[in-house]
From TrEMBL:
Keywords: Chaperone, Cytoplasm. GO terms for cellular component: cytosol. Residues 253-268 have a biased composition (Basic residues). Residues 56-73, 297-351 have a biased composition (Basic and acidic residues). It comes from the Eukaryota. SMART domains: DnaJ. CDD domains: DnaJ, zuotin_NTD. One of its GO terms (molecular function) is Hsp70 protein binding. GO terms for biological process: 'de novo' cotranslational protein folding; regulation of translational fidelity. This is J domain-containing protein. Residues 74-85 have a biased composition (Acidic residues).
Amino acid sequence: MAAVHFSLPLPVLPQGWAGEKDFKSIGQLSSATQRNIEPVGPHFLAHARRKRHQRTFSEDDRIQAQESVKKVEDDDVGEISEPEDPLMLQRDAKDWKGQDHYAVLGLSKHRYKATETQIKRAHRKKVLRHHPDKKAAAGSSEDDSFFKCIQKATEILLDPVKRRQFDSVDEAADVEPPSKKQAQKGNFFKLWNPVFVAEGRFSKTQPVPRLGDDKSKKEEVEEFYNFWYNFDSWRSFEYQDEDVPDDNENRDQKRHVERKNNNARKKKKTEDTTRLRQLVDDCLAGDERIKRFKKEERAGKDKKRLEREAAEKKEKEDAQKAAEEKERLRKETEEASKAEKAEGKKAKEAAKNAMKKNKRVLKSSVKDANYLLPAGQEAGAKRVDQVLNDVEAVMAKIDAEEMASLAGKLGGMKVAEEVGQVWSEEVKRLVEAGKVKDGELKVMGT
């Protein structure tokens, strides 16, 4: 860059300044009226710009300010590009409670999600566009009413308490729930999910469970509805309070307005809770997942019921079979016992009959053998009694088996000597066995 030449005025020397020490002569100082200035720093660039465009200081400052505004607006166009509503520009600043603070700052699409940085940038952009001094410099005759709206909106939105109060009643952030007909025809989850996202901004508990989709598990769906049926909301309605008079002298009126505001807040809170409960009821009524879960639950209950009934039936059948088996065994045992008794009785009868028969054989044997007398000798009554008494005594000493054996030996014998021999041997056996004593028998023992 070429050097710029211009004249510098002579310096005004302070009184008592000893310039001779620095300059050899006054002539040297007066001769330094022309200097070569090299381009240095932003001040020289500003000077060069004014010289190039033939501007005065005030003209250059005004143009530079306009370019700065344009640059700020261009920088923010991606962040805040909402067109301004002509009716909004004509708002009365006194009606600040009725204005949409987000719309005033151009943050309608962000609303409660807008960050503090976005709010400050939006405020700067709006101020640069609507500042009264700028409008006056541009020859506009508009008042500063909308500028006051901008300031009030910024004041509200940068104050956490006031912003929360405004967000509580910001109907523009609400999402209308779909009608029953819309929910049936459209995508149930796509229609209802934005509604709960919008309502979820009031929850004290974060994050808020999502509605999910058709593939959500039963536990997730139950968690969602349990959360909303027990919704803990921070939403309040102070923003819509009637202004309390500042007149300290009229305290009764002030207390009346405060009580009126408190009652209005409680009423609105109750109405909002009822509204939210109805909204959840409507969503639940149209949720096909709930119907599917109930159907599966009924099927599971039916399955368990059928299994239980089958188990009870089987248990009953097993018990019946066991009872029948027990009865069968009892009958068999009883029949066997009866048969055994019958057989025993029959055996006893047979044994008894055999005993009688054997006794007859034994008695008949001595009778046929002439009461053990030689042939030709007649047995008297005494002989008969003695022999029969001996027979009775022997039969009393032996058991049925021995009696049968003895009867077998005597069967068919009629010779007195042979019969007597058999009886003698039997008596001898009994004597040796100690069952019969010597001399106990009258005839057979001799």
